[in-house]
Design a protein that fits this description.
Blueprint: E1 20-21, E2 24-25, H1 96-112, H2 123-133, H3 148-213
Antiparallel strand pairs: 1-2
Length: about 210
């Protein structure tokens, strides 16, 4: 498994079309994002991180108004959650408040991922959609006979489609070469590190032998 990083100027969408590298089947996919509700390590509140916090600090152990690193609560005393008052740290994901917030976020995400469940709110919207779905035929019925101009245009369109596919293949080849170059650089770096480790091990063995002889 390799992790590839790209600069902001490089296009990364086309690399997901690659499924074969050097006769080996591969699967390229983005790193999965963490779906947990973010929690601040300063004020212990949910919905933001410490980078964007402007609130007063609260301790994750005792819910006191101080940073966690400054907490003087004895270790034999149980912690206290600032959110529900339970006997657990404020960052415990089994907390009732944390569970409810996570459930709300998950519901919101599932709604966004299901656009086909959209309901039509009123009759006007239904009528408008029906009008859009009706065929736009005015006057006499359209003729579907193929003309010479139409055949010629189809040939031009087919040629354009072929050129477009060729451009896509060229882009995929370029991206593939870019990935292979990055993988080669990573493998070279690993080889250099292995050589250094082997040299260090060899030197340490020599030093150990000298010390044993003494």
């Amino acid at each position: 498994m390799f992790i590839l990083s790209f600069s902001a100027e490089e296009s990364t969408q086309k690399i997901y079309k690659i499924n074969n590298i050097m006769k080996c089947r591969v699967k390229i996919e983005p790193i999965k994002k963490n779906n947990l509700v973010p929690q601040c390590k300063i004020c212990q509140a949910y919905g933001h991180t410490q980078k964007y916090c402007g609130k007063a600090p609260r301790c994750v152990k005792c819910a006191g108004k101080h940073h966690t690193s400054e907490c003087e609560r004895p270790k034999n005393l149980p912690p206290k959650c600032i959110h529900c008052g339970g006997l657990h740290p404020a960052n415990y994901r089994g907390c009732i408040i944390a569970k409810e917030l996570q459930k709300t976020k998950s519901k919101g995400t599932s709604k966004l991922n299901m656009p086909h469940q959209r309901t039509i709110s009123n009759d006007n919207e239904r009528k408008q959609m029906n009008k859009q779905s009706e065929p736009n035929i005015s006057g006499r019925q359209k003729s579907y006979k193929r003309t010479y101009a139409g055949v010629a245009q189809s040939a031009v369109d087919g040629s354009s489609s072929y050129n477009h596919k060729k451009e896509q293949r060229d882009e995929i080849k370029e991206t593939l070469m870019l990935i292979l170059n990055k993988i080669n650089k990573i493998e070279n770096s690993i080889t250099v590190m292995d050589d250094r480790v082997m040299k260090l091990e060899s030197n340490s063995k020599k030093v150990a032998l000298k010390l044993n002889k003494k």
